[in-house]
Amino acid sequence: MRLLTLTALTMVAFASNSILNRMALAGGTIDPLSFGAIRLIAGAAALAGLAIALRGTLRLWGPGRWPGGISLVVYMIGFSLAYAQLDAGLGALILFGVVQITMFAGALIGGHTPPPRRWLGAGLAFVGLVWLLWPVSGENAQKISLWHGSLMAMAGVGWGIYSLTGRRSTDALQSTAANFVLTAPLAGLLLAALWAFDASEMPGAQGVALAVLAGAVTSGMGYALWYAILPRLDAALAAVAQLTVPVLAMAGGIVLLSEALTPRFALASVIVLAGVALSALPTRQTKSR
Fold it and tell me: Which of 47, 186, 228, 263 sees the fewest Cβ atoms within 10 Å?
């Protein structure tokens, strides 16, 4: 039950990232790249301070540091750039669809064959997600940008690899802090170059505040929690669990951004959650029988 609670809390943090990103870009006070760079730098500062306060030191080197850091940068840059054009719902579908494929592939390559019920649950959750987020009119479908869709797919691969790397972590806080700190200089250089070439890209106070909140809290702390529970989840189940994030993000949009609650959303959410629940059911009793 504790693992289930922590997993649910992590998924809420992930969904909050989408909501904060949507709020910042919709407000027009910050551009996507500045949001992503500030988000990463704020996460690095918060996690480094927490690691030093709780562990007495910050260990930058260890197993999986470079794959984790590089995949984190790929995810954040692709995510930020893609949402400059993509509809939020369609972007979430591409992102978490690719994450699921990447993590299932990682599980198979690692020699872990998901049981049939997990495949069935993953398929059911993915069908519900597709139905929820698929454009309902030809006019919307014409607005899809292949370039931005590819960027979101790239972000999905990055996040999938980041999650797979986290399954080897022995100290979630140190690993997550190191991933952020090692990549923060790159984000700083990107930010400096962006503002040097175009001073009009300087973000407003609201955009910066939302980026810092997303970086320090929902990203930094959320990712540290994710790394803490990943070793206790197999890769396939971790992939399926993340399919709840778009549903949670859209629910947050209804509550915080006054988006409409539709019967389609309610029924599709039930389908997604049923698929996740089916995948999460233990198989130990069935095997013993």
Answer: 263
